[in-house]
């Protein structure tokens, strides 16, 4: 039997016995700019499952380390290399999914409940990932068609991002255009005293927000990314020494936001365009 499979099976067995939290680590490949298919971004994402609280957290691994360092006073600002900054929290009993917008972004953190159901179509096609037997399933979500590979050998009805609902853990899932791809690369135990990301003070006053209102806000921001800056200038929240400084700031912001918009035109949920 494969040594990797034996090692991972022992971790899951001990997990079931001790009810210790476990961390599933995924490689996330994405193409932020649909016009530049070769500009692939690689990130390490983490799905942490807590069997006692019956909850899971999904976030960027760099973000976890960065927020932990900030909470302990080691650093004052988020890691500048950090790209994906959201957090997804699932209640595995009630099947509730909550999406948290980025913290340390200057705006209040929004907590959005996403109760859209997943309708899975399980096929007979099988394969192996990390020596685990996996089975193929498909679904539609966020305007994309997705193919998932799940394993009943890992008895957690969960997966990366907002995905869940299959009779086993999702080890790999990608959309049909190959723009977003999550794949499990390792499994680790979590020590009881490890940093818990949603306990950070930056999430303490998160605002409940309707999914429909959030989607509308994201679409409006994409159409007019300068709206927020114009409002801040009008309300006097951004001060300038002269009209020339103000005009230069506006031009610079317009240029930077235009570049950002062009290079981030391929979100994981297409209904946010």
Low-confidence stretches: 1-7
Radius of gyration: 20 Å
Structural class: alpha+beta
Strand order of the largest sheet: 7-8-9-10-11-1-2-3-4-5-6-12
Tally the helices: what do you get?
A: 5
Largest beta sheet, briefly? 12 strands, mixed
How much of the sequence lies in strands comes to 25-35%
Helicity range of the residues? 25-40%
Reading the helices and strands in chain order gives HEEEHEEEEEEEEEHHH
Q: Count the domains.
A: 2
Q: What shape does the CA trace take?
A: globular
Assembly level: single chain
The span between the termini is 47 Å
Q: What is the CATH first-level class name of the largest domain?
A: Mainly Beta
CATH architecture of the largest domain: Clam
Structure description:
A 12-stranded mixed beta sheet has the order 7-8-9-10-11-1-2-3-4-5-6-12. The protein has 273 residues and is α+β, with helices and mostly antiparallel strands. The protein folds into 2 domains: 3-202, outer membrane lipoprotein receptor (LolB), chain A (Clam); 210-272, no CATH class. Mean pLDDT is 91; it is low at 1-7. The radius of gyration is 20 Å and the shape is globular. The N and C termini lie far apart (47 Å). The protein has helices at 3-18, 61-71, 211-223, 227-234, 243-263, and strands at 22-30, 41-50, 55-60, 87-91, 96-100, 110-113, 121-129, 132-141, 144-151, 169-175, 180-189, 207-209.
């Amino acid at each position: 039997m494969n040594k990797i499979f034996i090692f991972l099976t022992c971790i899951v067995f001990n997990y079931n016995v001790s009810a210790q939290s476990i961390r599933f680590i995924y490689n996330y490949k994405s193409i932020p700019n649909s016009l530049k298919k070769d500009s692939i971004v690689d990130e390490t994402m983490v799905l942490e499952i807590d069997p006692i609280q019956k909850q899971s957290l999904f976030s960027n691994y760099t973000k976890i380390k960065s927020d932990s360092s900030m909470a302990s006073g080691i650093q004052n600002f988020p890691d500048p290399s950090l790209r994906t900054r959201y957090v997804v929290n699932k209640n595995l009993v009630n099947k509730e999914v909550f999406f948290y917008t980025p913290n340390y972004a200057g705006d209040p953190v929004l907590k959005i409940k996403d109760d859209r159901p997943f309708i899975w179509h399980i096929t007979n096609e099988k394969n192996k990932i990390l020596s685990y037997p996996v089975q193929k399933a498909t679904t539609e979500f966020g305007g994309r068609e997705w193919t998932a590979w799940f394993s009943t050998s890992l008895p957690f009805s969960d997966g990366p991002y907002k995905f869940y609902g299959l009779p086993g853990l999702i080890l790999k899932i990608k959309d049909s255009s190959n723009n977003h791809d999550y794949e499990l690369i390792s499994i680790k135990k979590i020590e009881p005293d490890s940093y818990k990301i949603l306990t950070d003070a930056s999430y303490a006053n998160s605002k409940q927000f309707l999914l429909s209102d959030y989607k509308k806000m994201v679409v409006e921001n994409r159409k007019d990314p300068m709206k927020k800056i114009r409002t801040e200038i009008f309300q006097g929240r951004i001060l300038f020494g002269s009209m020339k400084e103000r005009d230069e700031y506006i031009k610079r912001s317009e240029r930077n936001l235009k570049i950002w918009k062009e290079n981030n035109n391929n979100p994981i949920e297409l209904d946010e365009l």
